[in-house]
Amino acid sequence: MFEEKYQKVKIKTEYITLGQFLKYQGIVSSGFEAKIFINENKIFVNGVLTNARGKKLYPQTKININNTMFFEID
Length: 74
Known about the structure:
By secondary structure, the protein is an alpha+beta fold. It is built from two helices and seven strands; from the N terminus they run ββααβββββ. A hairpin with a 2-residue loop joins β3 (43-45) and β4.
């Protein structure tokens, strides 16, 4: 993996859920859209495929969406 392709995303709370993260990044605009997006795309959290909208993302968590968008919680 190339560390430089991960975009750092700062959060002000202890964690953010995957659904909230997708809204925060402007990828979706609602929780319902997040649910659909998560089911229709391959989202890896720290290398593990997930479809849980409520998955908690803590600092240093890495998110890979369809091998095209890469984020790291900061």
